[in-house]
TrEMBL record:
It comes from Paenibacillus hemerocallicola. It holds the Pfam family SBP_bac_1. Residues 1-21 form the signal peptide. Residues 377-401 are annotated as: Disordered. Keywords: Signal. This is Extracellular solute-binding protein.
Amino acid sequence: MIHLKKVGVFATLSAVLLVSACSGNSGGDSKGEAKSGKKTVVVSVMTKDRFLESAVQKFEESHPDVHIEVKEYKAAKPAAEGGMSMEALSLADVEKYVQSVTTQVISGKGADIILMNEMPQDKFVAKKLLVNMYDLMAKDNSFDRNALYANILKASQDGDGLYVMPLSYSLDLVRGDTELLKKANVPVDKNKSWSWMEFKEIAKKLKQQGYDGFGNLSPTELLWDYIEDNYSQLVGQGKPGFDSDLFRNMMKEIKLMYDEGMLNEGLSGFSSTSGTGKSAFLLAGIYSPEEALKMPSNMDYFPKPSASGKKSGVPFKFNYSLGINSKSDVQQEAWAFIKFLLSSDMQASPNLMGFPMNKGAVDQKFNEVLQKFKNGTLNEQTPRNGGVSAATPPNMLPDGETAKKRIEDIKKMITEADVRRSSDMKVLMIAMEEFKSFMSGQKSAEEVSNLIQNRVKIYLNE
């Protein structure tokens, strides 16, 4: 699995690229044709990964009349021992992939199944380019919808329809140093939502004690969060709202926090080895049951501050999500493959990154992780998609009681996850590109908001 471990927008994009860089050439320039009398289902992904390759092999063994053809935009370079390299994809790669696939699907072509992580989902749904999977579920008596998390499904809807099926997801949270907060005498309730303006007041108190608020947050990342929190007002129904006081005030709030020193860009204040340092918080969503335990006892998960502070529940992001092309001639076969990917066996695969949609697979993975923890093998180096993850230092692991409690807390968070964080990557890139000139003082908030408004309007009307 490939993560982008760079500061700034690349750190934020690590979650976005998590799957595209290791799940799915042309990106799906044509639908499948009959192959030796079989029906062919074409799947468009950024780069292939072991989870998908294994799934294709197993599915074809049990469905001899169907061939799954995976079209990848950019092949991963071979690594040692026959694995795949951990080479990160650039933003240009992702943007070209999105543009290529979007053009194909809008023109009535494209693959039968599309990796939707970076796709402009709103545009696809508005143009009726995707199949409503609830319709397919209703006709399939063999599909057990109760095996999946109902809250995740509901939050993944567009209107009353489910046009994109999440296979896995991550929880969008932050890590907080509870010992540091206690030492600084700055209480923060981990069970209560809060806004960035409330964080600003906390950061002031921390600064008085010689501490920083966040250890790895750039202005563009913060803008990303602000836009996602207000996405329906800024981009809803294809009508951009960037030329507004709402957006201009967002930019001003962000700039003020950095100008006043409430936020600092970079990683200088946070210790990744001990979990302690000068910074109270670190952007770090939960991408897997194993990762949730690789954090010392003095750290805990907190809600990520929002631009409004009004949202309840736990926000999540898709790690792996698929849509079915409404122009596909093999919709039933495409649904059969997606249904197979949601089975408990496939969902429990160690190659599927993120939390599975299948409830039984989540329990199984947590049980496996807890057993590793008890056996003392959780911090061993483990192979992953051809690479090797670094061993976790002992001081980065919690004590036994904390491990058990953390698992129960995260299971509860999963059942409460009801805020899907999503947006059109192209819109975000336009906003962040123009926003830099405001942060540097080269242009006013009015000038930048106007530029973003015009560029986004042109893009949405394409």
